[in-house]
Amino acid sequence: MSSALDRLKNLTSKISSYELARKENLNILEELFLELGIDKKIETFSHLFNFKAINLSGASLVQETLGEIKEGKYLQVLAISYDKEAVVKSKNISLAYFGRVENVDVELKDKIIEFIIRYRFEKSFMTLEHYNDILGDLKK
Fold it and tell me: What is the three-class DSSP state of 69?
């Protein structure tokens, strides 16, 4: 019985840890949202999550090459919107443009990458909640 209790304690600890990380992530994400000027394109922070995804051109987001620049490209934060009613379903929207990637300050580039990773972290929680709700509806 104690091993079941230990597993429950470990699970509770992990869930609590994720919720704390999520809360901190959202606070930092909102700071970056303002600092990077994305608020000039999207009036409210919460509207950021209406996009299907956010991507980056000009630098790598792959873990093995994270932050590696692609010379000759432009550093730009792109949001992907999706409208199933439209003729063209998917549309890229520029949220922030920073110029040629090799001319962008490394610290700024790193903040842009952090913004996107933090967005994806929160978006993954939202997706998890969405599918959990759907599974709950299936049980009814």
Answer: strand
Q: Collect contacts of 11-15 with beta carbons under 8 A, ≥24 apart.
A: none
DSSP string, 14-31: HHHHHHHHHHHHHHHHHH
The count of other CB atoms within 10 Å of the CB of residue 77 is 24
Name residue 114's amino acid: E
The structure tokens listed for 99 are 């110029």
Segments of the chain with pLDDT less than 70? 1
Predicted model pTM: 0.85
Q: How far apart are CA 45 and CA 30, in angstroms?
A: 7
The Cα 75–Cα 93 span in angstroms is 14
